[in-house]
Amino acid sequence: MMNQTAIVTGASEGLGKSLAIEIASRGINLVLVALPLSGLPELASFIRKNFEVKVNFLEIDLTDAESYPSIFEYLRVQQITAGMLVNNAGVGNWSWFEDMNIGFYKKQIELNVITPVLLTRLFLAQANADATSYILNVGSLGGLFVVPKKQVYGATKSFIRYFTKCLQLELHELNVKISLLSPGGINTKPELLVMNNKLKGISKATIMEPGDVARIAIDGLLKGKKEIIPGWINRLLVVLNSLLPAGVKDIMIRRRLASVIES
Ligand SMILES: NC(=O)c1ccc[n+]([C@@H]2O[C@H](COP(=O)([O-])OP(=O)(O)OC[C@H]3O[C@@H](n4cnc5c(N)ncnc54)[C@H](OP(=O)(O)O)[C@@H]3O)[C@@H](O)[C@H]2O)c1
User: Fold this and answer.
1) What's the pLDDT band for 92 if we cut at 50, 70, 90?
2) Is the CB of 189 inside a 6 Å radius of any atom of ligand 1?
3) What is the CATH number of the domain that holds 166?
4) Which of 42, 85, 210, 248 is the most buried (most CB within 10 A)?
5) In a domain, 65, yes or no
C-alpha cells in the first residue's frame, strides 16, 4: 500500500478523523474532505508532522452536486490516482420524526446516501485496474436494528448495507475490495458521550472509542473483510437479531433503551 492515496470524507472530526490518522499510520497518503472551517488544515499538518505521508485536503460541502466531480478533477490535476475511498461523512439524529424539519432530512439523505453512491461511482472510474483498490462504506448497526428516534438515519444506513453488499457481488471478479463497516455506538462527540453514559448493561458495553473502531476497520478493509462489526458484543447482538422474532426484539429494544428514548 506504500505510495497509495486514500480519500476520507468527513475527516475533520469523529470517526473520520480517527480513520484518517489510522490510514496515515499505515503509510498511505491522504486526501481529507470536510466542510470549510472544520479544522482540516490543522489536521493535515498534524498528520504530516507525525507520519511520513503526503496530505491534501478539500474543504467542500458534500451535499453540493458539484462537489463530487470537483474532488476527482482536483486529483486529476494533482496527478493522483486514489486507491482507497472511505465513505465516512454522515449525519445522525436521535429525535422523533416530527421534531426535525424537512431541510434536515434532505441533507441527511443527501450526505448519507447520495454522496457515497456518487463518490463510489467516480472513484471506480479512475481506479487503476492493475492495483487493488479499497472502498470502506461506513454503515451502522442502526441499519440492521430498528430503533426508535433513528427512523431516517437507520433507513439511510440500511441503504448503505444493501448498496455495499450488492456491489461486492457485482465487482467480485475485479481488483476491488469493498467493506461495510457496521459499528454500534461510538463516543465521537460530547453529546454522544453524555447520552451513551446513560445506557446500562449490555447497551453500554456496545459503545466503543473512535480510535479502536478505526483500527479494526482499516485492518478489516485491508484483509478484504466483507462486513466489519467492531466489538464482540455487537457481533453477538447481530446473531441474536437474526434469530429472534420481530415482536420480541421490539420489546427488548424498548426496555433496554427506555432511559434514553424518553430523554
Ligand atoms: N457516532 C456514532 O455513534 C456512529 C455509530 C455508527 C456509525 N456512525 C457513522 O460514522 C460516520 C461518522 O460519524 P461521526 O459520529 O464521527 O460524525 P461527526 O463527528 O458528526 O463527523 C461527521 C463528519 O462529516 C463531515 N460533514 C458533515 N456534513 C458534511 C458535508 N455536508 N460535507 C462535507 N462533510 C460533512 C463533518 O465535517 P464538519 O466537521 O465540517 O461538520 C465531520 O467531519 C457517519 O457515517 C455515522 O453515521 C457513527
Assistant:
1) very high
2) yes
3) 3.40.50.720
4) 85
5) yes
